[in-house]
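Action item from last week, closing it out:
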Amino acid sequence: MTAHPPTRRIAFLATCGLVLALAMGCGGGPETAYGTLRGSSLNGTGAFAELLRSQGHEVRAARRLTDETAGWSEVIVRFAATPGPPGRDEAGWYARWLTQRPGRSLVYVVRGYDAEPEYWDRVLAQLSGEDQPERRAEAELRRGRALRWANRLPPAAEKPADPGAWFSLLPAVEPPATCKALGGPWAQGVDAQAAAIPLRQAIRDEPGRTTALLTGDGKVLAAEWRVEGGGDVLVLASAAFLLNLPMATPARRPLAEQVADWIAAEPSRVAFVEGLDPLGPPRGPRTLLELVEDLPTFRWIAVHLGLFAVVAGLARAVRLGRARREPPPGAGRPAAHAEALGELLAQSRGGPAAAREILGAYRRWRSGDETTERSS
């Protein structure tokens, strides 16, 4: 396997969200949105995207399969929101895209895993039954609900892609079984017991057309094939080692690195396709948060704008403490005292003449003339 110097950094990023979520305990529960590049969801794809970025790839999120997505991307990673193979129309779009330009590749991740049950397992492992019985009971209740995640999945495509050109799945196992043994080229150096890969639906093996890269208990978890006249396709039975919480498990991280190595040897433009229906009607414009997440250049602009906004807010903030009296007009100008005295003298009964007389008497007093007169 190719060495990955930034593996510790990826592990740190993948673990941060888990640590913060566990520290919160049971209150409110974790974020569990599936397949989203943004946020700190247990089922998010941010850690895997960061792994690709560390290898030099440029990663963006796309919610629709458009001409813009087709022209920009060299690799498409589709975290499907539904179980089973893609719909016929979606598969046709991928086939056309793969054959329009050489060197393109597609990673299709079937919806067959949810990280929330494992999250509650970790919460329960940290709680003491004697000291926190109420929190343990709540965590067990939430874990029981999370185990029924498959019942809440969206329905599979009504018109699935041709299995002869794409793939098909074996019947689902309920509840998902944990693979006791891993096989295939990707399993070298992976501790199957520590990885504990859950499996709900395996890929149907088609020797001669597809190549199995990873198996669990003899069932195919990852397979690849080449589209005639086009690029390569990698299908994963689930995202059990690609989402944020699984990538926080050291034993599963090498499998995520295998997927990253498969994508491309050279830095490429990678589009993460999200959402329930990528061929559906367009949604509204991207929000500011989405732009910050998708465009690194805009991210730095947003950071600077945010700092300026904080400084401006502090400058206009309300000053706390005892209010000070407004200084009287001209208090800092010495000449203002004489001017004020002149205005008061001008208002005396004698008018300006009396004011001049008073000032003259003041000058004589200051010069000593008045004292001389009195003594004589």
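Closing note: The chain has 14 helices and ten strands.
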